[in-house]
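Progress note, sequence design subtask.
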């Protein structure tokens, strides 16, 4: 692959923040941009140009723009978090805590909203201790963001026996006594769509929630888990009944 001189690559990353037009007539631009930026980031944090590029790309993700950068940036989030956490998370974490539209975008970009790989969202590329140190330093809102964005189950595509994802288990252990965090856990479980049977989809959560209800030392967590299990049962019944009614109405 032919690579442009490094100053031009770094400038391209900077232009993403300041000068990129809302649209382009070149359909190959996103592909070429991701290719060269990935190459530059692959040089690692010991490379000065790579560090400058990581800062520019991270800034682009939180900048207020008229155009949608996500289609160009989605594949770059993982190397930014994994290779340059001390740069990228300083910027992305600040954008999250500022709330607003960008915080919502970042939740989808870092979590499961833009990817079918729900058990392996980009946020897991961030070093675990970096995420939890950020949560401790920034109160309920930071921990709530993690609660809503991390995968809830260890096997998000699995069956009824799935347990808590290890990071989620740690998050609940450290921050689950906070009402704002429990509210975010509800959003994690109940947001998004699903295919197939509602009872099968929501049934995946039963084992993990039953374990929290029956064995967690926090009474607030035990009560929350019990109420959530009841809500899951009611939601499953509602959707399954609706599906049965639709099937009955559309039988030949």
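Output:
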């Amino acid at each position: 692959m032919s690579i442009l001189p490094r100053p031009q690559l770094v400038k391209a990353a900077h232009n993403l923040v300041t000068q990129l037009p809302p649209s382009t007539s070149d359909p190959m631009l996103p592909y070429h941009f991701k290719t060269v930026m990935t190459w530059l980031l692959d040089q690692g944090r010991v490379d000065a140009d790579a560090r400058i590029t990581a800062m520019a790309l991270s800034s682009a993700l939180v900048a207020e723009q008229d155009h949608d950068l996500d289609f160009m940036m989605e594949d770059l989030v993982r190397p930014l978090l994994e290779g340059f956490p001390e740069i990228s998370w300083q910027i992305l974490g600040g954008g999250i805590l500022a709330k607003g539209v960008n915080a919502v975008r970042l939740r989808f970009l870092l979590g499961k909203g833009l990817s079918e790989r729900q058990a392996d969202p980009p946020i897991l590329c961030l070093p675990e201790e970096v995420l939890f140190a950020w949560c401790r330093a920034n109160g309920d809102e930071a921990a709530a963001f993690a609660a809503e964005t991390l995968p809830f189950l260890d096997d998000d595509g699995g069956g009824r026996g799935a347990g808590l994802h290890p990071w989620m288990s740690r998050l609940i252990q450290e921050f689950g006594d906070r009402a704002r965090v429990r509210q975010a856990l509800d959003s994690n479980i109940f947001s998004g769509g699903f295919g197939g049977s509602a009872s099968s989809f929501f049934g995946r959560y039963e084992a993990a929630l039953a374990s929290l209800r029956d064995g967690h030392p926090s009474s607030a967590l035990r009560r929350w888990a019990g109420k959530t299990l009841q809500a899951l049962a009611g939601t499953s019944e509602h959707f399954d009944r609706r599906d049965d009614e639709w099937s009955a109405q559309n039988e030949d």
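The two ends are 58 Å apart (CA to CA). Work on this subtask will continue into the next period as scheduled.
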